[in-house]
Amino acid sequence: MSYLDTFIFGIYPYICLTVFFVGSLIRFDRDQYTWKSDSSQLLRKKQLRIGSIFFHVGVLFLFFGHFFGMLTPHFLYEPFITAGQKQVMAMATGGIAGTFGFIGLTILLHRRLTDDRIRATSKASDILIAVILWFQLLLGLATIPLSGQHLDGSMMMKLAGWAQDIVTFNSGAVALLSGVDWVFKLHMFLGMTIFLIFPFTRLVHIWSGFASVTYLVRPYQIVRSRRLGIGRK
Could you tell me the pTM of the whole model? Predict the structure, then answer.
């Protein structure tokens, strides 16, 4: 492996994750008024609903699919499914979810770039992150035919092994990517870059989406009505 491979796949992931966590914490602490999705629904509802539904359904499935698929050790699922079967399942479900996300984001990106009012109120970071995500989804779909050339699951095992070695601080992670096609590597690099720029974009609202689950266990809120006189002595 070259020095560039060592940096991108051995050092760069830790830079991205550090900026991701520390940057998100600092932004939440210092700029809470910017912690929002900056929805443009009030400017134009057309195309927003269908594009947003397609995009979010596809991307959320892909996120959790990648998270559990890449970080779950092989021995945990080996008694139930082989590496090859898991790869075929990932190709099928990921292809469907990726297509959903790609179609949805294409609609949203077209809406943002062609509507003068939305374009005028969009930040450069809004357009940048949308374009990066669009290319990332396209690259993800492009890896499916390449994965089809390794139906024994060998490619998936390499990529999962790399991800697991990164999160466990194993120094041998980079060596696992020997022979991996450049499309996979570019997809991985762009994915890490999204984590790097995450705290500086509207993507921070994703944290709030996950945090909303706490409402399920939040104590009841007592509301006292002045009109009915409830709670008065």
Answer: 0.85
